[in-house]
Amino acid sequence: MTQITETRNVVTLNATKKQRRAAGMKAKKPLVRILQYIALAGFLIFLGFPLLWLISTAFKSSAEINSLAVNLFPLQPTLDNFVAALERQGLIRAAGNSLLVAVATTIVVTLLSIPGAYVMARYQGKLRTIGVGYILVSQIFPVILVVIPLFFILRSLGLVDSLLGLVIVYSVYTLPFSLWMLQGYVAAIPYDVEEAASIDGANKARTLQRIVFPLLMPGLAATAMFSFVSAYNEFFFALVLLQSPEQYTLPIALSTFIGGEGKVAVGPLAAGALLSSIPSIVFFTLLQKRLAAGMLSGAVKG
Prior knowledge:
Blueprint: H1 2-58, H2 62-66, H3 80-87, H4 91-122, H5 126-140, H6 143-156, H7 163-188, H8 191-199, H9 204-233, H10 236-241, H11 250-255, H12 266-276, H13 278-301
Helix pairs in contact: 1-12, 3-12, 4-5, 4-7, 4-9, 5-7, 7-9, 8-9, 9-13
């Protein structure tokens, strides 16, 4: 009888401790949630402040910029910086060159990444070992080590000062990481889904088209975003390989806002940088719609 009583007391004590812990956790949840929101707000401010300052500078007058006054919002907003940026020779043409190179690179990298990533994720063998080795080795060497031999190779092929040569360089440079990223998405798709489709009588091509590709759409969107941004914002390869102003891309054209003596046209440069970000925003918006549609389609068909 005494043992039964002691057992009941122990059980009651343990239950009381659990209740206290649960009450403590409930009391801590609002505090944790508040701290999470504070951290998120701080992170958003950290990311958004440079963009807000760029927008503010783009609308400031030259006198306000040169006064070094710390004003988050322009006192007298003006469009003179945008006019000066658009009137600068070659900026619009450079924007067209950047878009052409970025879109072409995105298409090439995405088309090459699909079969390569599928093979790397689904098959084990020498081909996968070679692919993984290629990815790892390509990420080891810094750009400065490969740009000089790359320049001589492209010159022998007649592709220096050519947008086609730049597309080839960007595709080769971007492909390894895109393969590695996309094969992770392929590996996350259960192979049982493909086996079930083959049991139902679907061949390999139909399985890939109707089952795998819709589920892989988020990965394709992420790969396309990475390829586009990498090619659109790249500066060093373009600086070395492009020589004539007619072939300049946007990063090279924006660098011309810095004078020979280090004098920077801050207002027009900010306006030009702000305008150059519009294609990336539009591209992201379009891909986000495709991303959501692909996830819903894959969820239904899977």
